[in-house]
Amino acid sequence: IAFFACDPQGRPKRQDIYVMNADGSNVQQLTNTPSVVDEDPTWSPDGKQIIFQSDRDGNFEIYSMDRDGSHQRRLTDHQGGDYWPSWGRAKPGRATNGGSATGGGLIAFVSTRDGNGEIYVMNADGSDQRRLTNYPEWDGYPSLSPDGKQIAYYSYLSAKNWVIKAMDVGGGNSRQLTDNGVCDGAPAWSPDGARIAYSADADCTAKRREVYVMNADGRNPRNLTQHDADDMGAAWSPDGRQIVFASDRDGDYDIYIMDVDGGKVRQLTKHAAQDYMPSWSPDGQHIAFVSDRDGNDEVYVMNADGGEPSSLNPRRLTNDSAADWFPVWSPDGKEIAFCSKRGGSHLDIYVMDTVGTARSVRRLTDSPGDDFNPSWRP
Question: What is the dihedral of CA 306, 312, 318, 321, to 10 degrees?
């Protein structure tokens, strides 16, 4: 058993790491750091190492050592405190160095934890969080390609020029796809990976966006909506034949659907509240979206045709005093990831079962910045 103990003389600000046999015998001191706090030890899965937190270098960082206390080394180095290490056993088949994971898949998201919006990825259980972009301005709204090998995102060049970029899932081979001198954002890959839908805002006010589609290499951009309204947040149907989006063309935001050529536009929701951020289930049967129809932004789900009668039309999945945004389905359709401030003052990524019970909600990120805009692929 590993544990930490305060200085036996009662002096402040000193704690050390110890181990003992499970019956309490053979107590051994592993760290000996006067005026330093070493605490919260956790064993490696093979029992050969221990990780712990320490403020020996001025603020709390994560350290590791062999089980006998030798080879102590610092693992993190950040001006903010790093705490409460936990050493989990790797799951078979999980990629941990930039490739897509198996089973639960890979989640890309945006975080401000390093000072401004950057693109990060993590495994679907929240592990192996790593930053992919490092740009003085904002990078945001990541969309993982269907094969999990690329990420499309928008990059803030200036207040009047946002562009769509793409990169490999490991962060390399970044390339710019649009250069229209306007504000392009919210990219979304088609199911076959051949096209990308996105929004274009000519005056960069977020009051009159249009939905565009282009080839995955940035060629042949086409305006699909061309309507005197704010059309945004496009998401593809799994068969690639339709696009769902949000629009305020009837006075408030509702969910609409259209063919991929912009034809046959139909209104799916009609409510005095704001309905937006649609996301299509992998089986094509349901659409998740965000609405404030019950007084607070929550995640709802409805039939993909929007029609009555149905017990799922619409059904609220979340119910929390904090706003819940940006729902995305897991590849198997059994879970939905979203972002929320329910854990405190910052946005974090959560996941829940599609039944939407409070017991099923699990928090994946916990950082000093905002984590949002999840994208989920196998």
Answer: 70
